[in-house]
Amino acid sequence: MDQLFPISDYIVFLTTSSALYGIFALGLNLQWGVTGLTNFGVVAFMTLGAYTTALLTIKGFPIIFAVLVGAIFSAILGLGIGLSTLRLGEDYLAIVTIGVSELIRLIVNNEEWLTGGTFGVKNYPLPLDFEANLFTKFILLIVLTLLAIYAELLLWNSLSQQWRQYQRIQGKSVKQRKPLNLIIWGVITTSFIILVYVPGTVAIYNYTYKAGLMVLALLTLAIIYTGLELLVHSPWGRILKAIREDENIATALGKNILFYKLQSFMLGGAISGIAGSFFAWQLTTIYPKSSEPLLTFNAWIIVVLGGAGSNAGVILGAIIFWAYDSITRFILPQLGMLSQSQAGAFRVMVIGLILMILMVWRPQGILGKKEELTLGK
């Protein structure tokens, strides 16, 4: 039983990381996968949300207020970038987002009076950081159980919808096996739910701050995912997809293209800002090096792997990404063939190789649809 505690703690870390990056990538997916807006500086929105949350809570503001302000600041950053570039074209947007990302990084690295410079921000309040009594543990366990049930219901609903769509395409009279991507989605997601729930209950019973953060991250992910699903399948979401496919058609229908693009870019930025708050809480100390461009690369990996335009695919991509990260982090050192620095470079190289194969075999991602593919547009 004692050996189960370190394992459960590590599972809690992986679950929190998957939920955090899931939120982060959902913001990018709204911007790029749904609307077709290229954002190569998405880490800037996360950084702004993380520092805003940490600095405001240090000044005594409530945590919820600090998170909302961080999300608003990230949305305002998206508004500023959008107003200056969205009229010009996607190339300008991509360039400006890279520049703004570096600008934010340089500011937090040098403005010691505001962000602490290279020393970072420390000792800020953390959510659910308390000694939990039996009643609190019971409430957290109920929330975790409901989230597990909700995730499984979403899984089977998504699988059934895609299976019906697949049958319509292949023909009702033709008996065929279920597509490989549906099997992968079902097996991985169900395994992840079980893998999270059992160690999660152990972590809640032996309560630490990290267990509470895991439940909070999963709950926030569920809320944001559900909200985005409703928005994407609403008339507003269909307009965004029309803009992605052909702006001229949307303009001919009397839609204000710039207005809708700004809405999408700002909302995606706000979601990334919320992910930044969880990023700060998980690290418990924020340094400028924590907001490296690699985070943007990771978010793009998740979206491309899971499927552009698919919110469910983003969640699957986050799970696969962190499963790969944890497995290779343990296996490569055991082989004894690579040093620590070489192993890190090798892991990134393998990710690049996987993406290259995916672009040839299934460019739309595991759960993406070819008709919604934004690559090459």
CATH architecture, please?
Orthogonal Bundle
Query: Which class in CATH terms?
Result: Mainly Alpha
Number of domains: 1
Q: What is the chain-wise order of helices and strands?
A: HHHHHHHHHHHHHH
Largest sheet: none
First-residue to last-residue Cα separation: 54 Å
Number-wise, the strands total 0
Distinct helical segment count: 14
pLDDT averaged over residues:
84
Model description:
The structure is a single chain. The chain has one domain: ABC transporter involved in vitamin B12 uptake, BtuC (Orthogonal Bundle), CATH 1.10.3470. Helices cover 76% and strands 0% of the residues. The protein has 14 helices and no strands. The longest helix is centred in the middle third of the chain and has 37 residues. The mean pLDDT is 84.
Notable traits:
377 residues, mainly alpha, ABC transporter involved in vitamin B12 uptake, BtuC, globular
Break the fold down into its secondary structure elements and pairings:
Layout (H helix, E strand, L loop, with lengths): L3 H31 L8 H16 L4 H23 L4 H21 L1 H4 L18 H37 L9 H26 L3 H24 L2 H11 L1 H6 L4 H27 L10 H13 L4 H25 L4 H22 L16
Helix pairs in contact: 1-7, 1-8, 1-11, 1-12, 1-13, 2-3, 2-4, 2-11, 3-11, 6-7, 6-8, 7-13, 8-11, 9-11, 12-13, 13-14
Task: Write a brief structural summary.
With 377 residues, the protein is mainly alpha-helical.
